[in-house]
Design brief:
- The chain has eight helices and eight strands, in the order βββαββααααβββααα.
- By secondary structure, it is α+β, with helices and mostly antiparallel strands.
- It has two domains: 73 residues, OB fold (Dihydrolipoamide Acetyltransferase, E2P) (Beta Barrel); 161 residues, de novo design (two linked rop proteins), CATH 1.20.1440.120.
- A five-stranded mixed β-barrel has the order 1-2-3-5-4. It has a three-stranded antiparallel β-sheet with strand order 7-6-8, with no helix packed on it.
- A hairpin with a 2-residue loop joins strand 2 and strand 3.
- Helix 3 packs parallel to helix 5 and helix 5 runs parallel beside helix 7.
- It is elongated.
- The N and C termini lie far apart (47 Å).
- 29% of the residues are buried.
- The structure holds zinc ion.
């Protein structure tokens, strides 16, 4: 018997009536089976919704079975708003993507809980989503250079180069996949933001869109990742 605490990042059907639930915990991904989960009467169905924070008691070897499921939080305020929920799903898809990487899962898990809380309880939640994506790059060892030209260390910055992984001077600005220097400061303010100390900054829509595209391209280029939720968001919000 083992107790696990984590966030539901994925759930899938298993055989006729069962489901496998994937949890993100402070040691990475874990999964368990719930029998009869597809029956409407199953109490486990609502408990194991995506994004729920659970404490479970698991039994068995190999594919474990949940004998007890306690819901610690449902983040209901994130789920009543379609756009907010799609942003949250985007974050959880990214977590699922890195859940078996060799990174500090304890750190990522604690940070994820804080970010989910902010997404749920604030109106200005988009900067927190960006913050999560930016800081995760650091945990993955893919952090962008934000202070001086990646190639020559010149501090007079002309833009941000996706392929070079950071800021560049005017001599090293590539023709493609680059972003204007004006985006570097707001992006850096999110990258270095201490979520425990102050609220997220607010940005003009233009900056919100610019940073979104910068992060998207960075993730696609360096992680080969574009989430399904991100594709859905594009349709919902238009960028
Ligand atoms: Zn340079």
């Amino acid at each position: 018997m083992v107790t696990r605490e984590g966030i539901v990042i994925k759930r899938m059907d298993y055989k006729e009536t069962s489901k496998i639930v994937f949890l993100y915990t402070d040691t990475g991904r874990d999964s368990f089976l719930i029998h009869g989960a597809n029956k409407i009467s199953s109490p486990h169905l609502a408990k194991t919704e995506i994004a729920n924070h659970l404490k479970v008691i698991l039994q068995g070897k190999g594919l474990k079975i949940a004998t007890e499921i306690d819901v610690l939080d449902t983040y209901s305020k994130s789920k009543s708003d379609l756009i907010k929920f799609t942003y949250l799903s985007h974050v959880l898809e990214i977590v699922n993507h890195v859940a078996e990487a060799e990174i500090d899962h304890g750190k990522l898990y604690r940070f994820l809980l804080k970010i989910m809380d902010k997404i749920s309880h604030t109106d200005n939640y988009i900067p927190y989503v960006y913050m999560f994506e930016a800081k995760l790059l650091y945990l993955l060892g893919l952090q962008p250079e934000l202070r001086a030209c990646v190639i020559c260390q010149e501090t007079d910055i002309a833009g941000f180069s996706i392929a070079d992984g950071g800021v560049v001077c005017k001599n090293h600005l590539p023709n493609t996949k680059s972003f204007p220097a004006e985006l570097v400061r707001p992006f850096a303010s999110l990258y270095y933001h201490d979520v425990d100390k102050s609220d997220a900054p607010t940005f003009e829509t233009e900056v919100i869109i610019g940073i979104r595209k910068l992060i998207d391209e960075y993730y696609q280029y360096h992680l080969n990742l574009k989430t399904k939720a991100r594709e859905m968001l594009e349709k919902l919000i238009g960028y």
